[in-house]
Amino acid sequence: MSTSLTVYHLPQCDTCRKAIKQLKEQGNELDTRHIVEQTPTAEQLRELIAASGLPLQKFFNVSGDAYRAMNLKDKLKDMSDEQKIELLASNGMLIKRPIVTDGTRTTVGYKEDSFRTEWRHG
């Protein structure tokens, strides 16, 4: 019995497409979610952040247009973690992608080598 992975992605993102292709090639079942149309809620983000073991800052798409347009590089340092999570939940374009989770583990972004070991099926 295989575990389905939830993948928050942006369909037009080349990196997301590469990640999804690799996950499928490795035999994983995927529940794909459009990160803008199905943006994770604040509660889901809290769970994803906890499962990732990464600092909250790693969930921001710092190279994205929305991040730069909102001048978040300067604003985030004055925000609480809760405010940052609410901000991420309000705009999926601010979230680094893809996010992959099995409900216990979570990865953010895509690196072929780490996906090969972290999300190897079987």
UniProtKB/TrEMBL annotation:
Domain of life: Bacteria
InterPro entries registered for this protein in UniProt: Arsenate_reductase-like, Thioredoxin-like_sf, Tscrpt_reg_Spx/MgsR
PROSITE patterns noted in UniProt: ARSC (PS51353)
Similarity remark: Belongs to the ArsC family.
Originating organism: Cohnella faecalis
SUPFAM superfamilies (UniProt xref): Thioredoxin-like
Full protein name: Arsenate reductase family protein
Lineage: Bacteria, Bacillati, Bacillota, Bacilli, Bacillales
